[in-house]
Amino acid sequence: MIQQRFGVLTSGGDCPGLNAVLYSIVGAAEKLGAEVLGFHDGFEGLLLPDSFTKLTAANTSGILKTGGTILGTTSRGHFCGKVTHGRKTEVPAPFVQQASQTCRDLGLDALIAIGGDGSMTIALQLYQAGFPIIGVPKTIDNDLEATSMTFGFDSAVACATDALDRLHTTAASHKRIILLQVMGRHAGWIALWSGLAGGADIILIPEIPFELEKIVDEIQRRTSQGNKSTMIVVAEGAKPMNGKESYKVNTRGEWQLGGIGEMLCQKIEKKTGQETRLCVLGHLQRGGAPTTLDRILGIRFGVKAVELALEKKFGTMVSYQDGIIRDVPLAHAVHRLKCVPPDDQIIEAAKGIGIFFGSSSL
Description:
With about 350 residues, the chain is an alpha/beta fold.
């Protein structure tokens, strides 16, 4: 006999570990006699008739190790919420009401939303509208407040670190400067962690505006000391001192963050006279199998989400703090982004081994 029925959806950008969360939600729910309905394409699935699948141990077997999400996801459509340094958007009331009716019609006792800052903003709005909702934090950028780590981040860092390992050999062989552009719109956690782990010489992140002349001076200093190559990791949201982020027009005619690596590549080559190449890692950071850490974190998050659903602790988000899985109010997770503090211990460690952050003031 089915005791309770839970809904679950994956929203926003894809990342490794989403299926691990789904796998554990289904496993934990079935053990307790609960049923799980998975909505397709994020919150959009709440607006379409029959846009869900009953998830069971049988049809989720083997998904733990796979990347992406078997439910599909989207960062577009009727539900779009973004948090960018205090600015957020809200979902129009008619769509909230329609989604609410879907949940009532299906007899959902709880809805588990898995996503990043935008998705948690939507989840908070839905909770305030009466939804029995629980959030699970997901973002490769690791920029969500109220949790020390999100699943997907470790996999993205591992991908970027592997890229650096490979680029080192070609940079040294040709005596080149190579820039690796990684994701990180407002927070430079991927660039910082992968740059340190991958032996970068210069790391540029959004939180520390760079000075081009200082970067050129550092490259020339390294060259004068006999270094054959220079490796630079740059987050896509990095910007020059007193400047702005770089944007470019995509194929849909929309302005999209990007282009900082290309701009730096051209200017550095012109000012140093050294051959300079750019590698934009892009969506490779989102794809592929999750690391061991992301699988375990995803499983723990999923089990905790089911516990919160059974306890009817709605309006909360699963959180990882000090090695323990806890829960926090959704409102604590979306009021601002978690950016890299300039005095972060990892920055201090990087500086301690000579990594330059593009600014003379640091």
